[in-house]
Amino acid sequence: MAQLGSTTGDKTHARVAVVAAGVVSPLGFGLAETLESLRKAKDCVTPVKRFSVAECRCKTAGQVPDDRLADLTRKLRAKRLHRASHMVIHALKEAMTQQPQFEPEMTVIGTTSGGMSYGEHYYRSLRQSGSLRHAPTWIANYPAQKPVIDAQEAVFRSSVPCEVIANACASGTNAIGHAFECVRSGRYQRVLTGGYDALSELVFTGFDSLQASTPEKCRPFDRNRAGMVLGEGAAVLALENLELARQRGAPILAEIVGYGISTDNFHITQPDPSGVGARLAMERALLSARISPEDVDYINAHGTATIFNDAAEGRAIGALFNGAPVSSTKSMMGHSLGAAGAIEAIVCLLALEDQFLPPNINFGTLDDHLDLNIIANESRPAVVRTALSNSFGFGGTNASILMRTVGA
Amino acid sequence: MSLSIAGMGWVTALGNGVDAVWERLLRGEEASATPISEQFGDRTYSAFRVPESALTGLAHPRLRRASLISRFAAAAGLEALHAAGVKVNSENAGRIALVFAISNGGVIYTKRFYRDVVETGAQAASPLLFPETVFNAPASHLAAILGVTGITYTVVGDGAVGLLAIRMAEDIMTDKSLDYCLVVGTEEIDWLLCDAYRRWRLLRLEPPIEPFSKQKRGMILSEGAGAIALTRFSGSAEAEGRPIIVEHAHPGGCYAKRAEAEEILKGMLRDLNQTEPDFVISSANGTFIDQAEQRALEQVIPNAITYTAKPALGESVGASGLWQVILGAQALRNGELPPVLHATPNISLRLSLSRMLVPKAHRAIVLSSGVNQQVAGLRLALRANEAERASN
Known about the structure:
The relative contact order of chain A is 0.19. In chain A, the strands form 3 sheets. In chain A, strands 1, 2, 5, 6, 7, 8, 9, 10, 11, 13, 15 and 16 form a 12-stranded mixed β-sheet that branches. Chain A has a two-stranded antiparallel ribbon with strand order 3-4. Mean pLDDT of chain A is 94; it is low at 1-10. Chain A is globular, with a radius of gyration of 20 Å. Chain A contains 14 helices and 16 strands. Chain A has 408 residues and is of the alpha/beta class. Chain B is 32% helix and 23% strand. Chain B contains 12 helices and 18 strands. The model of chain B has no long low-confidence stretch (mean pLDDT 95). The interface between A and B is large, with 74 and 74 residues.
């Protein structure tokens, strides 16, 4: 193992259960639709029509259809909300339908860009001397905490303290990891967590300017991969002290058993090519869970399909795990940034519940420099007791969480 | 578990360095407002900007292209670690956590990046600017400068985010393998932000900020950073030399409607007031939130002396909570509060309207009420040494 600095250690803390979950993504609305899309290896990437992509290399993204978000807009106030709020509300409502008595002490949510498209409307209107009649609405709904507070208000009708983590593409996994540590430490009994992000022109153009996004299909770990496609969505997980959850008879969907975080400081947009940052995060998650790499049955990779990420992450996975099945479900739905870690945690949850391996679609031939067991193009049944989910982001921030079936 | 403040760093419109800024506040000084003109109109705003001299000597390759927000953060963070006597090396790089508090983020580069897209098209989008638009860019720059390899979080919120970041630090420090958590709040300003806050009816075009005024004329934005290095309190005031302890960081709350802010603040104050404070560092900034804070204070801690530095330093949003904690710590250590500027005499709170001695003060409440639905608070305590306790 690489040198372990810290972040975990000799802890004998509370066990942490996932007692409810909700999701909205290009794969579908809710757990059932998401499961079906994963099972069927559905390609949910579609042409972008929300803003002009004429001058971008990439012209596609995984998108949440507006018409399905619209069922909330009957109320006047809801009409003003950013679509990110609508996504979080949907995800939270699904989770709380499963556990209506769940009362969180805190919410920890990851995002990268909040209500960015409202900021774009505002700037364009200023620049082009357009109507600024809606400017106060755009400005008030732009901040990153707003969708979280909107969702809490819609579901709980009460004030729940919220922390919004913006650690670039690792935000969702960082949020879940921090929430996990909060419950595991015993300081909290119930924490709501997850992540969200909605597609925006600024971010889309940004990744295009970096030539990180591709005009082709998203092909993680493939020899011919050419980059990422963006996505969007929201996912929420209700975490609870496992013993307390059992005492009140709550169904336990899975257990979160480990979390690892590292900062590799190599470059603001590129990972350390050696994969040391990714490896440290995964090793720390294993150490935190007190399990060995052989215990991991499925790895949901960050797998953006960029040359640099997949090379570094693939190298780290290959060095640490001996043939564990790997997929990047971003191939099916794009990279939803701050939501990605949370949606992919749900993917792991479904893999654990339904005993199958989610696929890595658009896959042809493995990168010659990698030694990975890719779940190519089709889902397949398997015994899945423990799953690892990775998320890595700008700024060299790396995060991994480990989930397992209860009783495994 | 209590955390003690091992070091602090401060970059403000009144200069940099904790003691230097503090002295100027004690003298009743107010930062000079700088005019900022709109790009697309003829309106001019006022803002409290950090003087260039505050960043002198800050040189690192990672900061070459970095925006002001990252430079402010680096300056404050390095000062706090220096004051704490912490040198990051390969031995302890994983034992120091970084938590950043940000509200508006890198607005200067974000606007510039998007301006190019709007004016010239996506082909003109700069791959150099884009990474600097990301909320965690300042944290990643400081992590790289220091060589920190473990936990680095950026927390985003409104003016309450600084105290929420400290609460997060408290949660993180339950991990015994960590020695320190450096909490940094940072913010930069631009005409676009001024315009946005004005359209939101929260900004006034020129100073002063009139705290607790019923007229709610608005705030003046400011930029800068504040940083505190936190470590676990050993339990010995003698060993740590009159440490300032974060005795209780409240998890805060969210208000869905403005009218709810007061009730949430009252509940939070009741939790924090279990040990009566000697003074309160308020976040009053001349907006609607002042009235909620005032009514909550009047009802829960009517006799507490109240101070706000925002008329002197401006509203630095993401950095403001850290500034307030630095103010509270300085006041406890020095037994003195600066004067609240531009407060009208008819305010029913017990304001420190002139420089005020509080020699026996041992506890302070810091209250951060954001304008976008979040509130947070914490209680600071000065742990006196044996000689002081005897004299008291």
